[in-house]
Amino acid sequence: MKPLVFLIGCSRSGTTLLQSLLAIHPDIASFPETHIFQYLFANSYEPRRHALGLSSRHLKPKMEKFIKEELGRPELLKYLPHPLFKKLYAEKFIKILEILADEEGKKIVLEKTPDHIYCLEKIEKYFPQAKFIHLLRNGADVVASLYEVTHEYPQSWGGARNIDQCLTNWINAVQISQKYVSKPNHHLVRYENLIQAPKETLQEICTAIKINFDQNMIDNYGISAKILSSDSVGRSVNCQGIIGNSSNKFTRIFNLEQQEYILNRLSIIDLDNLANKKS
């Protein structure tokens, strides 16, 4: 089995940018978001299936659509077993990604679905040798971006989210990352460090996943970004250079009362201290 790396974090934390930087590396193959583990395990919205430990009824159609439309490789569907066998299904799905990596001459599979952070325990159970990159971004920026994108593209994001929902998304994701800060197969990365010092930050990531840094990651990441980003759902990457978000989105979107409320809620997390403890 090829080395497997999962890139996770709260949505709108910059995971598509980091994925694009890594995916141009000569050793790494990466693909559009699969969301497989969100459908592999039924949640509370499917109480009977959840109680019986079954996969979501959405698993089969979602993965078939992904392989046919996102990958454009319907002939690979033959590798998928019956969704009743969850571990086998997950292994065979990853095998499909490995086949694609082989075709590209790549030795590492990078899977990026931010919300897989909520499935970490189950992913580690199925793939104990996997490595995980957690991307952490300033909470106010994430809340503003998540609020904006879900209102602009509600159908693609499961509906528009209110401020409290956006806050909960970020807080929950960061608190999960906090549990894994000392684990050697988990590497925590600050988005702000990636923007301010991309070479040094990428060198640390490369060391964590045991590959050599390649300057091509910075110089030509726009090539992979054009493939992996999706403007139609607000998932875009600036291909002209690695720059921070200077739009002051937080102060533009929210009034002073909302800003104060958000910052007060976010104060329970010391992100700087958390990132400094990374393995």
Automatic annotation (TrEMBL):
The UniProt entry's coiled-coil ranges are none
A single Gene Ontology MF term assigned here is: protein-tyrosine sulfotransferase activity
Q: Which Pfam families match?
A: Sulfotransfer_3
| Alphabetic keyword roster | Transferase
Highest rank taxon of the organism: Bacteria
State the PANTHER family in the record: PROTEIN-TYROSINE SULFOTRANSFERASE, PROTEIN-TYROSINE SULFOTRANSFERASE 2
Q: Can you say what this protein is called?
A: Sulfotransferase
